[in-house]
Amino acid sequence: MTDAAQGHAGGVRGRAFTGYRIAGALSALLFLVLLAWQAFELFDGDATVAPERGWRAVSSEAAGDDGSGTLASEMLTARTRLQDERFRTGPAPDAETPGRGLPQDMRLEQQDIPRNEALTDAWSRPEGDAASMLHDPGRIVGLSSLPYANAALYERPFARDWRVGLSDVITHMGAIAILGMGFLLSAMLALRGRVPIRKGRSGRKVRRFGYLERTTHWLTAISFIGLALTGIVIAYGETLFLPLGDRVLGTLGWWSTWGHVLFAPTFFLGIAVMAAMWTLGNLPTKLDANWVAKGGGFFSDDGPHPPARKFNAGQKMVFWSAVLGGLVMVVTGVTLMFPFYWLDLGGMAWAMLIHAGIAVLLIAIFLGHIYIGTVGMQGAIEAMWGGDVDRNWAEEHHVLWLQEKDAKEGAR
Amino acid sequence: MKAFLTGAAVAALGAGLTFVGLVTFDQSTAERYQDGSVILLDHATSWDTD
Ligand code: HEM
């Protein structure tokens, strides 16, 4: 090991190198525990929502009178009629409110629904008559006095697929993708260690990203992280925060619902400016195939390092994920903000599925990006923080870019 | 560092403007009556175009 490689400030050989690997191992362990928790969540069977409480009318005197669904339904009918009337006529604050639908000596009471999961099961796996009724028209439509267009739509097979897709498949796959990525990155840090600048620092700098490039990057990054964290509260809040209490989930949920919309416009601005600045440098070339074939030179400190211009193939994938993935997120997200304006019920269901599915993928991808930009590689963060990188770093990772830049500046 | 702070400031400004915009053009999706009853002002969307 050469002198230069050993002891430079911020170097990653020797003791510092080992330190990163130990941290990686500990973090990998943590992610293993989290993955085990996710596996438990996957199989504990609470991914389905079952109705838990139902209404019934009971006599106030003789509590426990096996009372009538009938009275409850009469009261609901009266209520429905009132709503229907008001929906047609608009507010009439002076009008008389109908009397209580329930006689004085009766009251409504909630009770547990026994065998509630059996109800959900029947709903999620239709059999016999229900199945054949659903099969043909794709839905079961009934009669309803409720003043909503969708109220009379009782069952729709695609609604089931949507529900299972969103609350089961995407939720669990997303958790596996995100935690799995965390585990892989930690394991990589433990086994491979931080990627060093092989020749050590030269102490001479070269400008890599200008002020506008860096500002745009951080604008996008901050917006994305804001969207990701609030989105995780929205999607996983019940699992992650409900154990801490209703209040915690309620407060976080409130802030997250707001925050999730507030970060969106700047995210869109960020990816738009990024696309304008960097698309040209990110078009695929022959170099990329070679770079990918050699694994980016990532897995060894001695082998040949595949040459790259300003962006290597790995970075190009990150760029296109941000721009194209981000665009899909913005389009579906705006659609969800304006439900039913340009899509119908089926379209809205797809918008949700796509928004959620791409979101978890992007979070996993950008975990990888953040890793390699910080702990994963010595010297990388300087490109985005101050804008200048060490010449040895540039020569190693972007040799063609450095040569072209030197040639241009030498010629001036 | 300076670029990071600028980015953060633009993000904060964007969030503030969006908030003001949303509050200004807020449209309620439900109406509440004196007796406490509420009706939802759903769009007349429908399953029959689905
Ligand atoms: C804490 C979070 C982040 C850090 C520390 C970080 C760090 C970096 C660094 C150091 C570079 C320059 C690499 C080079 O010199 O070649 C970079 C580039 C880039 N970053 Fe980030 N980044 C973060 C978050 C994000 C997010 C959330 C996005 C997009 C949503 C993003 C998108 C990009 C893109 C498109 C590039 C240019 C292509 C590339 O180098 O991969 N970054 N980032």
Counting copies of identical and different chains, the oligomeric state is: heterodimer
Total number of helical segments of chain A? 15
User: What gyration radius of chain B follows from the Cα positions, in whole Å?
Assistant: 20 Å
User: Which series of helices and strands of chain A comes N to C?
Assistant: HHEHEHHEEHEHHHHHHHEHH
For the termini of chain A, the CA-CA separation is: 39 Å
What fraction, in percent, of the residue positions of chain A are helical? 55-70%
Coarse structural class of chain A: mainly alpha
Residue fraction in strands of chain A? 5-15%
In which order are the strands of the major sheet of chain A placed?
1-2
**What is the straight-line distance between the termini of chain B?**
51 Å
Rg over C-alpha atoms of chain A, rounded to the nearest angstrom: 29 Å
What can you see in these coordinates?
- The complex is a heterodimer of chains A (412) and B (50).
- A two-stranded antiparallel sheet of chain A has the order 1-2. Chain A has a two-stranded antiparallel ribbon with strand order 3-4. In chain A, strands 5-6 form a two-stranded antiparallel ribbon.
- Helices cover 63% and strands 6% of the residues of chain A.
- Chain A is built from 15 helices and 6 strands.
- Chain A is elongated and about 90 Å long.
- Chain A has 2 domains: 15-45 and 160-411, Fumarate Reductase Cytochrome B subunit (Up-down Bundle); 56-140, no CATH class.
- The longest helix of chain A has 36 residues, at 157-192.
- The two termini of chain A are 39 Å apart.
- With 412 residues, chain A is mainly alpha-helical.
- In chain A, helix 6 packs parallel to helix 12, helix 9 packs antiparallel against helix 11 and helix 14 (391-397) crosses helix 15.
- Chain B is rod-shaped, with a radius of gyration of 20 Å.
- Chain B has 50 residues and is an alpha+beta fold.
- Helices cover 46% and strands 12% of the residues of chain B.
- A two-stranded antiparallel sheet of chain B has the order 1-2.
- Chain B starts with a helix and ends in a 10-residue tail after the last strand.
- Chain B is built from 1 helix and 2 strands.
- Chain B has one domain.
- Bound molecules: protoporphyrin IX containing FE (HEM).
- Residues 208, 217, 220-221, 224-225, 274, 311, 315, 318-319, 322, 366, 369-370, 373-374, 380-381, 383-384 of chain A line the site of protoporphyrin IX containing FE.
- Protoporphyrin IX containing FE is lined by residues 208, 217, 220-221, 224-225, 274, 311, 315, 318-319, 322, 366, 369-370, 373-374, 380-381, 383-384 of chain A.
